[in-house]
Write a structure and sequence with these properties.
With 134 residues, this protein is α+β, with helices and mostly antiparallel strands. 20% of the residues lie in helices and 37% in strands. The chain has a single domain, classed as Roll (2,3-Dihydroxybiphenyl 1,2-Dioxygenase, domain 1). It is built from three helices and nine strands. It is globular, with a radius of gyration of 15 Å. The structure holds cobalt (II) ion. The site of cobalt (II) ion has 5 residues, from strand 1 and strand 6.
């Protein structure tokens, strides 16, 4: 059922500094910052040979990651995203095993224009887990 690791998402309070770390200290290909106001974040995409790292900074009032940054002022791992072929089937299988799907359980269109769902971190070993249908 589970496919590639699509991305790892990391919250930061200073997007430019985080991007510089990956670009200059690690030698990664780093995108320009992009504002995604509909998701309440500014992001930089770090392209790796086998996956991506998404650096996210809160944007605007009520950003969904503002609380995370308040609890983790130094930033930190926010979620991992795995690719699945059939997101409803994947969610049903996880729910059958006792995992909770966040929200109303319906896939939403995520930041990459594809259907996504989030699984409760307490049911995933403490890691907020995103599924993306590809
Ligand atoms: Co994500």
């Amino acid at each position: 059922m589970i496919g590639r690791l699509n991305h790892v998402a990391i919250v930061t309070g200073n997007l430019e500094a985080a991007a510089a770390l990956y670009r200059d200290a690690l030698g990664a290909a780093v995108s320009l910052p992009q504002a995604l106001p509909e998701h309440g974040v500014r992001v930089v995409f770090v392209e790796l040979p086998n996956t991506k790292v998404e650096l996210m900074e809160p944007l605007g009032e009520g950003s969904p990651i503002a609380g995370f940054l308040a609890k983790n002022p130094a930033g930190g791992l926010h979620h991992v995203c795995y690719e699945v072929g059939d997101i409803r089937a994947a969610a049903a299988q996880l729910q059958a095993s006792g995992a909770r799907v966040l929200g109303d359980g319906e896939p939403r269109i995520g930041a990459h224009g594809k259907p996504v769902l989030f699984i409760h971190p307490k049911d995933m070993g403490g890691v907020l887990t995103e599924l993306e249908e590809v």
